[in-house]
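Dear support,

I submitted the protein below through the web form. The confirmation email said the job was done, but the results page showed an empty box. After a refresh the structure appeared. I'm attaching both so you can tell me whether what I see now is the final result or a partial one.
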Amino acid sequence: MRVYAGIDEAGYGPMFGPLVIGCSVFALDDDAEPTPNLWRLLNAAVCRGARDKKKRIAIDDSKKLFTRSAGLKHLERCVLAVLRWSDRPVDTLEQLLATVGADDDSCLPDLLWYGDGAESTALPACHEEGTIAIAAAQLRRAGQRAAVAPLGLRTSVVYEDRFNRLVKATGSKPRCAWAFISQHLAAILQDHGEHRPHVVVDRQGGRQHYRRWLQTSFPEAQLRVMDESSVLSRYELTDDPRSLVVSFQVQADGAHLPAALASMTAKYVRELLMARFNRFWMRQIPDLKPTAGYVQDGRRFLKQIEAVADRLGVRRDQLIRAR
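What the results page shows now:
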């Protein structure tokens, strides 16, 4: 068996809402290429773009699929269909977080704005259940023909208070994000390391060298530098009898389907949580305009909710993420 995985995040830059790091893992036949083109192998069921005459499932960089007009439509159809393909269907946000959450802290936290009045968020949110079932059946048939199967879809959800604690402890946002990327890598190494999986991680910022971070996170493993260039940094980790190859690549979510699916899953989870965040504050201030959480509009939003937050006793380190 060959194992091919991708890791990507959503919400690295905003001042409100969680950082979410997604991970997807696939199994293929032994004779598959080390980095196969899953768009080609699953062509009967999936496509890259949002518009497709055959109505296949769009899998691409989440920034291309999550638009003002489309909303969650493309993200939801794909993510829920992949989970159903994996025999892990979900029908509420709470169940989604329990199913894909990488740890207990990824479930809903004890923060006012995620409680949402103790109401469950029903899923799918913008599709009929039958639409998801049909998409899952398409994926299952295409996967059977191509000998491709999903092995896992996971997210680490770093809520605002947890994010701030970790940035303070690690000294930077990149190191905070790395803590969860390395957890996904460790899980893949533990679960699938006998198959020497290839993991592609979307490179963030200008970082080109990951040797020191990998050595710190995997002190018992042997590390081999395979490539370090302006667009790709690749390493092999060996912890007998397990090993993996990890590539940090610019725009990996546009070049590798597992990274694109990780990006979509992370974005889907974050946007469902941001919908709860906005609903809570709009109940407190009925004429309040919702926010996506990014800094420019976030400052406007903070100014409008500040008095209510003070009245509710909300600490700023629970609400506003460290910059």
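Response: this is the final, complete result; the empty box was a page-load delay. The first strand starts at residue 2 and ends at 10.
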